[in-house]
Hints:
Layout: E1 2-7, E2 11-17, E3 23-29, H1 36-47, E4 54-58
Parallel strand pairs: 1-4
Antiparallel strand pairs: 1-2, 2-3
Amino acid sequence: TRIGIDVGGTKLIVLAYTANGDRHVAKFPTGPDAGPDTILAHIEPLLTHWPNPAIGIAIPGIVDAEGRVQD
Length: 71
């Protein structure tokens, strides 16, 4: 299973493609106060359906060499 996660300023979109070709999409509202805990609360329950996925994450902003998003 391959999972793409798009963390945006107004919504979080999770897209999963399974090995048998099924496509699953989940959308959740976010906002300026949505931090990592809020995002994980939406994503973690979905991961129980697809163990050991390959995951890609898109986030707004620039990431430094240590993996931190710059303001």
